[in-house]
Design a protein that fits this description.
354 residues; T-fold; 9 helices; 25% strand
């Protein structure tokens, strides 16, 4: 009995001597395979564990609505409805409405209705091929914005017969926006969320410094640690789209997955990578905006992308850009000058624009 009492006392003393865990630095990190992407969710704080798994639940719920390859998803039901109106949940209705808006704002550079064209190239099914010009022209005739039964909160959507949509260009950005809501609900002090090319840098690192978000070097895409530069971000979304991420080669030609809705061919804009950065505090789904614009501005090319940035800087929700060009330049907009670190020895020429 004496030995037992001494043992219990020893455990109590050892426990009392242990350094207390700082709840602000307690961490949970989980990997999620969803939306055709390997995602990493890292949360901090006393509620880091339930927050991380609530983020995963959010992603799973959105994937069940948005997936084009899941035959049971809401998008698949819409695509297979033969033109009939389909009732949709609030998130899907809102995202289609947002996509329609960015289609208008980008003069068609973002177009979720080019899904049949993407399938013709095999990017959806991973069975790559080069379609004929005649086939593309026929499929491009199916383009058009989805229609809603009522204005305001969308409850049902219809497509034209033969039409289908793909939300891949904006779905992960919307997921990041919804994850931000989860982090705020669980009062998480900081988090680093990576949804493929979509990053949410929430708060700062435990040591008080900004999160470091690398921009992949397209010329060394096979090396995940090769960067064209590093962004130092706090409370920001950063989304990168690039022609190096998903592609195939045939007869010496390189064909990537970012389709120009005007031609039906992979965008040939002189850009190889576009990164869009925006503040988390901005209204109207800034993560979704970054995702939508990273694709649309890639299609537009450097000159139009910068003109678009200048216009939005003064009239709409502001954002910043890092463009990597085919001729070896990294173009950084002025709002990122203090948050962008050049990569020594990368071989790129760096420019700042205003």
């Amino acid at each position: 009995m004496r030995r037992l009492i001494l043992y219990v006392l020893l455990l109590a003393l050892l426990g009392g001597c242990a350094a207390p865990v700082d709840p602000d630095t307690a961490r949970e990190s989980i990997q999620v395979l969803a939306m055709d992407t390997a995602m990493l969710i890292t949360t901090y704080g006393e509620r880091s564990v339930p927050a991380a798994y609530a983020c995963e639940d959010t992603i799973r719920d959105l994937e069940a609505q948005f997936s084009r390859t899941d035959p049971d998803s809401a998008v698949s039901r819409l695509n297979n409805a033969g033109g009939e109106s389909v009732e949709v949940e609030e998130d899907l209705g809102r995202l289609i409405l947002i996509a329609n808006t960015y289609h208008q704002w980008t003069n068609g550079a973002l177009d979720i209705s080019i899904a049949p064209v993407a399938s013709a190239w095999g990017f959806t099914e991973d069975s790559f091929r080069v379609p004929s010009q005649e086939e593309l022209e026929e499929l491009l005739r199916l383009k058009g914005r989805p229609q809603f039964s009522t204005p305001g909160i969308v409850t049902s959507v219809s497509l034209s017969p033969g039409q289908s949509i793909d939300l891949g260009a904006i779905a992960k950005g919307y997921a990041a926006d919804k994850i931000l809501e989860v982090l705020q609900e669980y009062e998480v002090p900081r988090a680093n969320i990576s949804l493929g090319g979509n990053v949410l840098a929430y708060g700062g690192r435990p040591d008080g410094t900004p999160w470091r978000v690398g921009i992949q070097d397209p010329a060394r895409a096979e090396n995940p640690n090769a960067f064209a530069g590093v962004l130092n971000l706090t409370d920001s979304f950063a989304v990168t789209s690039g022609g190096y991420q998903r592609f195939f080669e045939e007869n010496g030609e390189h064909y990537h997955h970012i389709i120009d809705p005007a031609t039906g061919y992979p965008a040939d804009s002189g850009l190889v990578s576009v990164t869009v950065v925006a503040d988390c505090a901005l209204p109207e789904y800034p993560g979704t905006m970054c995702d939508a614009l990273s694709t649309a501005l890639f299609v537009m090319g450097e000159e139009q992308a910068l003109d678009f940035w200048r216009f939005w800087k003064s009239s709409k929700t502001p954002f910043e850009l890092v463009l990597i060009t085919e001729d070896g330049r990294v173009v950084v907009t002025e709002g990122l000058v203090d948050r962008f670190t050049q990569e020594e020895g990368s071989g790129y020429d760096y420019e700042t624009v205003s």
